[in-house]
């Protein structure tokens, strides 16, 4: 598997699985009815953010990730990311590779932590993957996500410290601001 920066030319391959996953409405808080014109703006990021793709050796896009600051200003030292794997390639390590890449990306840029704001609690494969990479659930917004089949389910907030001490009320050396 090759991981590389995404380009606008990758969008048709990403869109082939992006649109069905968003329309299903089971795992992302994105609008389920994004038009073909709107959708790239929700996924393809400009610097300082980054969007990457995972490809097979012959160049087929199997997954994608976008990485960015979670907040601005005095919260800009926390990174976030989102991942999307083509359902035809699930269970083959694509999600793990994308997530690991984003953690390395955030560390290399001096972010102190990563935070996922909205991991749908019923997305058990994603929760299990993130926990296996060191993330932990630090809170759950009860009923924060309207699942199309299960009704209102929780949204987990997940956290991974990247540098220095972590936890409520701790402070340590400041990392460079990204």
Compact overview of the structure:
The chain is α+β, with helices and mostly antiparallel strands and 178 residues long. It has helices at 11-24, 39-43, 94-108, 124-132; strands at residues 2-5, 50-55, 61-69, 78-85, 113-120, 136-147, 151-161.
Describe the structure.
The chain has 178 residues and is of the alpha+beta class. It has one domain: Gcn5-related N-acetyltransferase (GNAT) (Aminopeptidase), CATH 3.40.630.30. It has helices spanning 11-24, 39-43, 94-108, 124-132, and strands at 2-5, 50-55, 61-69, 78-85, 113-120, 136-147, 151-161. The protein has a seven-stranded mixed β-sheet with strand order 1-2-3-4-5-7-6. The model is unreliable at 166-178 (pLDDT under 50).
**In sequence order, what are the helices and strands, one letter per element?**
EHHEEEHEHEE
The gross shape turns out to be globular
The number of strands is 7
The class by helix and strand makeup works out as alpha+beta
**CATH level 4 superfamily:** Gcn5-related N-acetyltransferase (GNAT)
Number of helices: 4
- How many domains? The number is 1
Percent in helix:
10-25%
What is the CATH domain class? Alpha Beta
Distance between the ends: 28 Å
Biggest pleated-sheet summary: 7 strands, mixed
Whole-angstrom Rg? 16 Å
CATH topology tier name: Aminopeptidase
Poorly predicted regions are 166-178
């Amino acid at each position: 598997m090759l991981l590389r920066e995404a380009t606008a030319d990758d969008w048709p391959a990403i869109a082939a699985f992006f649109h069905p996953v968003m329309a299903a409405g089971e795992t992302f808080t994105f609008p389920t009815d994004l038009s073909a014109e709107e959708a790239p703006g929700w996924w393809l990021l400009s610097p300082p953010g980054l969007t990457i793709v995972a490809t097979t050796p012959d160049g087929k896009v199997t997954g994608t990730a976008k990485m960015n600051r979670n907040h601005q200003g005095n919260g800009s030292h926390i990174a976030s990311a989102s991942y999307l794997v083509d359902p035809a390639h699930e269970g083959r390590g694509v999600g793990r590779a994308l997530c690991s890449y984003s953690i390395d990306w955030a560390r290399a840029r001096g972010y102190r932590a990563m935070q996922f704001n909205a991991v749908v609690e019923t997305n058990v494969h994603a929760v299990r993957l993130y926990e296996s990479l060191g993330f932990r659930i630090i809170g759950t917004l009860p009923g924060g996500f309207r699942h199309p089949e299960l009704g209102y389910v929780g949204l987990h907030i997940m956290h991974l410290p990247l540098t220095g001490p972590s936890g409520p009320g701790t402070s340590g050396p400041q990392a460079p601001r990204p």
